[in-house]
């Protein structure tokens, strides 16, 4: 089946109960900024998505469905074919439209495996529209939760979990890397709960001095310590009938972990120096970026905190959300970002996640106000080799094993030339030797001062080189300094049969 004109109301109603996810295309960037975040969801095993100026139709949930429409998009379709093993083969249209994958121009058929689609692949069409190719395991829907921005199925699922648990009163444990929005999720749970009129009391457990942690959490009776004749309320007292957010719970001092367990079990706690217990009805939300399944953290406390667990995904697992995050952070100023920069931002792995992206976008907004067009290198400080979208797509003829990419800017022209010469002028082999993707290798070849494109080498020069190499195409490619695959195709055209 070819999904060239289906909308989100197509045969997708049972998506959430389906055994396999569907292939989705999300608009990350479009000259009409209102189109950012629109999606087409379709493409089960054996299906083909034909993507051109007029089809398929993209939409926000509940809105009118529209084609990409932009004049820079080819009328002839770019084909995305999914096979039974969830590999997706991308076949380019026979048009001049420039197609880029993760920021690098591609000119041949590209094959993505299931893991690569799960990472999200960033496609730029006609240097105007940026798309993300990814899986969806649930339908797009309007389920807004304050601060949690995104259109992909991962963030939709997080919002559903937050709405589900918010009014339950259960303790919630938020797990996720630094910068994924655990504090935002905690505030959202409180805002959607029956306790929203009361304050959200928050504490960073990593900032508590071990000797004073019990005092901060549980308070103290009058005269319990020098200089404090009056009783002092702790955080549990302040959060009575409200919500207490224990951020960085993995850093809770060992001495207070049994006390936290007791108050979670029955609501009872004893202030420092007090003769009697007090009770708190505080609803607990805890968060950590650590693995708490270790002897260093009380496993009994962990079991109590796990009343409901929500995993906040890293940004590299939701690249389809980068466009709407840009719009959310930058507002109208985001319209001035270059398309190439948006593609780089979407393909980057963001070790600091949404927080790091937000800081980068605020720097971009500042530069734009000063009349400076920002570049990726100016926005992102990279202290170690950063793979970006780490698993390179393979050509349809090869397997393309996953490997860590090198940044193109770190490669010299001499290294590129040596890689091609040392690998019989085979692009895929040279790309693997350099630790870059095949699309990135094409960009390196295009920018190289000595390596030539086979299609622009005069026929007479190719004929002389073939004669000098005694019709050995590999030796001929070395003489001409051009990729062997392209030379083979050109020679077949020049000398058919």
Automatic annotation (TrEMBL):
Q: Which domain of life is it from?
A: Bacteria
Write down the Gene3D superfamilies for this protein, in alphabetical order: 1.10.8.60, P-loop containing nucleotide triphosphate hydrolases
Under SMART domains, the record lists: AAA
Q: Name one GO molecular function term.
A: ATP binding
Q: Which UniProt keywords apply?
A: ATP-binding, Nucleotide-binding, Transcription, Transcription regulation
**What does the record list as GO biological process?**
regulation of DNA-templated transcription
One Pfam family, please name it: AAA_lid_14
Domain Sigma-54 factor interaction residues, every copy: 148-366
PROSITE patterns tied to this protein: SIGMA54_INTERACT_3, SIGMA54_INTERACT_4
Q: What is this protein called?
A: Sigma-54 factor interaction domain-containing protein
């Amino acid at each position: 089946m070819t999904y060239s004109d289906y909308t989100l109301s197509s045969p997708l109603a049972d998506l959430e109960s389906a055994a396999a996810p569907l292939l989705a295309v999300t608009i990350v960037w479009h000259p009409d900024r209102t189109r950012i975040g629109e999606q087409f969801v379709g493409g089960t095993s054996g299906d083909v998505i034909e993507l051109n100026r007029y089809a398929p139709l993209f939409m926000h949930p509940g809105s009118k469905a529209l084609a990409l429409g932009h004049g820079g998009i080819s009328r002839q379709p770019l084909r995305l074919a999914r096979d039974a093993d969830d590999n997706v083969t991308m076949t380019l249209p026979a048009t001049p439209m420039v197609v880029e994958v993760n920021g690098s121009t591609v000119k041949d058929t590209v094959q993505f495996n299931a893991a690569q689609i799960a990472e999200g692949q960033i496609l730029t069409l006609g240097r105007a529209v940026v798309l993300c190719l990814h899986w969806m395991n649930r339908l797009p829907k309007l389920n807004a939760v304050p601060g949690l921005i995104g259109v992909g199925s991962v963030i939709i699922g997080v919002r559903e979990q937050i709405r589900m648990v918010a009014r339950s009163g259960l303790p919630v444990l938020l797990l996720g890397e630094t910068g994924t929005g655990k504090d935002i999720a905690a505030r959202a749970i409180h805002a959607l709960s029956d306790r929203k009129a009361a304050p959200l009391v928050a504490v960073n457990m990593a900032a508590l001095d071990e000797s004073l942690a019990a005092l901060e959490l549980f308070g103290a009776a009058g005269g319990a310590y020098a200089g404090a004749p009056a009783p002092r309320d702790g955080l549990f007292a302040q959060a009575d009938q409200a919500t207490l957010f224990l951020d960085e719970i993995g850093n809770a001092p060992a001495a207070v972990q049994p006390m936290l367990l007791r108050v979670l079990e029955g609501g009872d706690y004893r202030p420092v120096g007090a003769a009697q217990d007090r009770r708190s009805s505080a609803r607990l939300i805890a968060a950590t970026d650590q693995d708490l399944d270790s002897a260093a953290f009380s496993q009994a406390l962990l079991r109590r905190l796990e009343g409901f667990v929500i995993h906040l995904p890293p940004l590299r697992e939701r690249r389809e959300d980068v466009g709407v995050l840009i719009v959310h952070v930058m507002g109208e100023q985001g319209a001035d970002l270059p398309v190439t920069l948006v593609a780089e931002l979407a393909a980057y792995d963001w070790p600091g996640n949404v927080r790091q992206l937000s800081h980068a976008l605020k720097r971009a907004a500042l530069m734009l106000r000063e009349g400076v067009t920002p570049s990726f290198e100016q926005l992102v400080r990279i202290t170690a080799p950063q793979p970006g979208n780490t698993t390179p797509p393979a050509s349809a003829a090869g397997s393309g094993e996953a490997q860590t990419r090198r940044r193109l800017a770190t490669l010299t022209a001499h290294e590129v030339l040596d890689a091609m010469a040392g690998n019989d002028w085979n692009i895929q082999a040279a790309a693997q030797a350099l630790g870059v993707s095949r699309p990135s290798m094409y960009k390196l070849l295009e920018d190289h001062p000595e390596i030539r494109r086979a299609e622009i080498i005069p026929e007479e020069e190719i004929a002389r080189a073939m004669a000098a190499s005694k019709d050995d195409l590999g030796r001929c490619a070395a003489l001409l300094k051009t990729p062997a695959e392209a030379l083979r195709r050109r020679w077949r055209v020049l000398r058919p049969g």
